[in-house]
Amino acid sequence: MKNQFLNLKNLAFALSALLLTVSCNDDADKPIDEDKGDESRWITVAAAKMGDAPGDGNGGTLIYSISAEDAKDPTKSIAPFDNGFIAPSNRTARLQASEDGNTIFNISYAGDTGGNYTKYTVNGGQNFTPTGSEVSIAPYVGTAPRWIKLFDGDKTGSAVYVNTEHVIDDNDTPTDATDDVYTRTNATIGVVTLDLENSLIKNFQEHSVPLSAEEEANGYYISRIDMPTLNAAGNKLYIGARLSKVNPATAESDSDYEILGSKTIILDYPSLLNPSVITSTVGKGNTNGYRSINAFEYDGSVYQANQSDPQGSHILKIGSNNEYDSSYVFNLDDALGVEGAYILAWRPAANGKAVVAYRHNGSIEGVSGAQGFFALVDLNAKTAQKIDAIPYHQDIDLFQYQGFAVNGNEIYITVAPVGQNGNIYVLDTETGLVTKGAQLVNVTGSHFIGTF
Questions:
Q1: Integer Cα distance of 57 and 50 in angstroms
Q2: Is 225 strand, coil or helix?
Q3: Which positions carry the signal peptide feature in this UniProt record (predicted)?
């Protein structure tokens, strides 16, 4: 019995021709901040087109870039669904951006081109110029890879997968050939690192990663991994993990079980050897995230969100000793005064203050999922405050949210209900001031998935 956790579906991808223009200029020159008299950065907006159902994002991904100054201007209007660049991908593209915003990295997700790595120079508007060569990581991690750009100066990307197989001792004897006994579930992880500058595979390793003997005897196993993150020293790679469980008496899936402490897989870097697993005593639940980066290095430590925690999402801290810091307790339920907080995406600025996209038990069910909200978080003070300056609507679904562009202390956020127009909002993390920016023109059933 073998469970594969790679999504290898081939889905048709058809997008209409580029038809309309928008009010922002397609300026091929790098943007200039006229107030500061120096170069600004591009803000690339990502839009996910509807496939079969509102908010599913399965119709493909379009991107459009404007200057940071235009992104703050509410008189500007952009329509990526009508006049955007199609990011190659069968379903929702997995996008990353260089730290200066001048390059977009993409690995196509699913279909015939799944696993293909491409990168583009950002020139403004729908003008994204292919640069460098392409490379496929599909032979290593499949055609639907979970990947992330490491924070090492835009040099390296990393993609991961896990395969699982239940180990059954058939214990056959001449008198009884039906005495099958579940022993454990073997989780084999694969990790590949990719040279983003030269489009080359740097390293690939596979490992069997066990849990404790007690956990495995009770049917627990690692069922999904994602979001590799480098520690501050650059010698360890942290990989977020999700646990699942079977009933050890039957080897059938168990959905009603005790949630264990949050776990992270650690590998030596860059060798990708010597796997180990650490467990939090503060938070429970998953650390693999979903579409957005789930862990960030800040001030010598790595801060990591968890999901599906019975006490609400925490931001956990892994110290320079590569162990969870049990003295750092930051629970979003307590900080926000809600129940069942679930961190969907987040991103800190360099000052240790961050934006968090979340939902909670009180979220209204919208057209494609539970209503999402945004909060300003302080990692040092362990405080969180809902951003009330953003207009909320029950159809703001942030489950597939992928990215936040950071420009100094400012963080750029796309806010629009599924199938409805919205705006870019710019959060000054130092002051808490929110600026309403350029209008986002939407189309039926589609949504915006962030800035890069």
A1: 5
A2: strand
A3: 1-28
**H helices within 192-337, ranges in order?**
213-217, 332-336
Which residue's entry shows tokens 């069922």?
Answer: 223
- Residue 87: which residues within 8 A CB-CB, separation 6 or more? 46, 60, 61, 62, 63, 93, 95, 104, 106
The pLDDT tens digits for 407-429 are: 999 999 999 999 999 999 999 99
- What average pLDDT score do residues 227-255 get? 97
H or E element, residue 204 = strand 200-208
> Cα separations (Å) of 430 from 293, 350, 427, 450?
22, 10, 9, 21
The pLDDT score that the predictor gives to residue 180 is: 79
* Amino acid 159: pLDDT: 97
Domain count across the chain: 1
- Indicate the average pLDDT of the chain: 91
Residue 177: which H helix or E strand, with range? none
Q: How wide is the angle at C-alpha 10 spanned by C-alphas 8 and 13, nearest 5°? A: 135
Ramachandran angles phi, psi of 315, nearest 5°: -105, 120
Tokens representing 37 are 């008299």
The enclosing domain of 423 has a CATH number of 2.130.10.10
Q: The domain containing residue 294 runs over which residues?
A: 2-451
Tell whether pTM > 0.85: yes
Q: Residue with structure tokens 């007690």?
A: 214
Assess whether the previous peptide bond of 210 is cis (omega < 30° from 0). no
